[in-house]
Batch of 2 targets.
Target 1
Amino acid sequence: MKIAVVGTGYVGLVTGTCFAETGNHVTCIDIDEKKVEKLKNKVIPIYEPGLDVLFDRNIKQGRLDFTTNLKEGIKGAKIIFLALPTPPGEDGSADLSYILKVADDLGPILEDYTVIVDKSTVPVGTADKVTAAIAANAKVEFSVVSNPEFLREGVAVEDFMKPDRVVIGTSSKKAQKIMEELYAPLVRQGNPVITMDEKSAELTKYAANSFLATKITFMNEIANMCELVGADVDMVRKGVGTDSRIGKRFLFAGIGYGGSCFPKDVQALAKSAKEVNYDFEILNAVMSKNETQKTKLIDRIKDHFGDIKGKTFSVWGLAFKPYTDDIREAPALVNIKALLDAGAKVKTYDPEAMENVKGQLGDSIEFCEDEYAAAEGADALLIMTEWPVFRTPEFDKIKTLLKENVIFDGRNLYNTETMAELGFTYYSIGRAA
Ligand code: UGA
């Protein structure tokens, strides 16, 4: 099948590459000429494990190409994916201008029946708006489908190729059939393709992300309770997670969720609710609790050291989670800012995200070549991202590098008893110090 993907961001690139891998011919379209030039030269602008192999293979085999020209790019395409940004506007609602602009442009250039797919996370009612924008100038029949993505950064290729489920929002039988045919190779093991109306599909995406953000926040609240009553959040997590109604995943307490999705989507759903005069109270609580959770360790640090002016802190991890260089809404940055504001110095190491942070913080902090260099001469160690490389470090070496054997762990990487035996003062989340 010939497919076009408009927008070569993270979602568009993964979608395009993976559909090329299942034998389709995919043209990715972007208005950013520099980006398209890079892609044509086989340079992937994002860090996503496993994407490079598929990307190279499909370009080589002629199934994946790139253009800045919308008309050329969609020629012969049976399906056009819209994978465009929907950044939060001033008031928290999703800005649809990129999507609606492309919808306007598509109307007059469609040559045959085409399925246009909203892949971006968009508020309820967007499929109707896209339909109206295309219909204003379209000369041929078309269907607009909502097909939200559930990809996690860092494991996006795996999530794409083996989805838990595929959600297709359409009221057109013709579009449904084409979409089912496209996704058939990915659901051979029997994972469901769930077809529903457009609005339900749009809401499903927000509901999924907001539910997961709420689940994490709930466990963060339990962790805070654990600290006050002397319980251990890891034990509580195991105790509740084994109830199949609750499930084991996304129950890890920490220093709050970040990234480009949860914060934006929780905010957008709360805003959408407001627009229909519904106060989605629980989401307001989730947002404010997540903010305070992010700097939880700063309070501990100040309790431990008193004044931290002039002290040096080693920060391990900058990305909002492992296996990505993404620092959007990353708790690490909020903590670094709080440390700098209090007059402290920061030395840091992250396997992938340092370049991105350099762009924001310049030389206000020191970037080191590995985790040990970052620990050298620091008053304490802070763990902000659970990169596997931080899980089993050489603790004896760390003891020789730090001025004081104290670790503030925002991701609960280590066993509290082991840390005590090793002679560390160890603060973590929801467990006895
Ligand atoms: C999330 C969803 O998991 C995807 O299904 C969705 O497609 C994507 O958003 C999106 O809307 O595009 P992502 O933001 O890549 O994916 O990252 P997650 O792995 O979901 O992690 C989000 C945040 O929650 C991270 O900051 C992570 O550290 C935090 N988290 C996750 C916890 O604090 N505890 C947990 O138990 C799990």
Target 2
Amino acid sequence: MEVINDEFYMRLALQAASSAAGQTSINPVVGCVVVNEGRVVGIGAHLKRGEGHAEVHALNMAGDYAKGATAYVTLEPCSHHGRTPPCCERLIQEGVKRVVVAATDPNPLVAGRGIKRLREAGVDVTVGLLEEESRKLNEAFNKYIMTKLPFVTIKTAATLDGRVATRTGHSRWITGPEAREAVHTLRHRNAAILVGVSTILADDSELTTRLSVPGLHPIRIVVDSKLRTPVSARVLNGEAPTILLTTESAPAERARELEAQGAEVIACGPGPRVDLALALKKLGEKEIGSILVEGGGTINGSLLEAGLVDKIMLFYAPKLVGSEAPSAFAFQGPDRMGDALELENVSVEHFGRDWCVTGYPSNR
Ligand code: AOF
Ligand code: ZN
């Protein structure tokens, strides 16, 4: 049985926040629960960039009951005039007596000022309840707001011996339906999905979100140094925007043909290969805050070697296909085991007969 206390209400606020994961663009997900004398009087979440913050929705619901209430907020209430007015002023104005905050806001425009302002106005503020859970929900926001670079997650689906196809290249399907549904949830939650052109040429992938309920499509990004993507490729079907990352040495005529199909072509460096660090910078400038890489061994290896990966999610099926089959990570690797790329904060989840191992590379 759940016991009613501060943690209970903060968990409710975290759940409200996580319901909007994937739909707030470069904004964080935030939840707020307002409680007055033992009664929940308002629940809100930030649902869309440019629209109401979590506190505003919850306070609007609470109305007069906000006076003397406690507000549980998963992120420090903002203190700046952004697309919406500052939440800390609204909390003060409504007469909220106590505010419980999970995590401080790393946005340099806020960064502690929201909490300071509330305290100056005589509001009792507690900070740090379920802080880790809140930070994890906003791991992409936390990186983007400080660096203007997208948070990069590599996802692979491999056999237990780390292979992404058989020796003939056959790969449908490695993991089962439960794992594949989880991958579509990841697509919904990331702003963009990135693959190498070889994936397009081999599978004619559409790269959209296909769930049992409607999901959001990520922006589709293809790393294509020579612009070999066919104009008839499904990735250009208009279901979602498509960006082709290429080099200055790619044929200009191909670029025009692909642009005529609706693609945006972005040159990243002189070539012969796409400068991936520069590519991330340019994608960040376009306000792409998170990227799911479903790329194939070469892209995965290059990103890892360049230290550009924030998170890895390795789906494993209980199958073995032998050493002639292609690997999920094509990179040379170190001479000594002590120099291997290590994952930190590793967790394991089950999806049907498969597993997902999640970790954060130590070299990022
Ligand atoms: C809050 N509650 O629900 C959210 C906050 O452009 P704006 O006006 O939407 O402001 C975005 C910034 O506000 C964002 O970068 C982050 O610092 C904060 N987000 N703050 O008090 C919320 N979404
Ligand atoms: Zn706010």
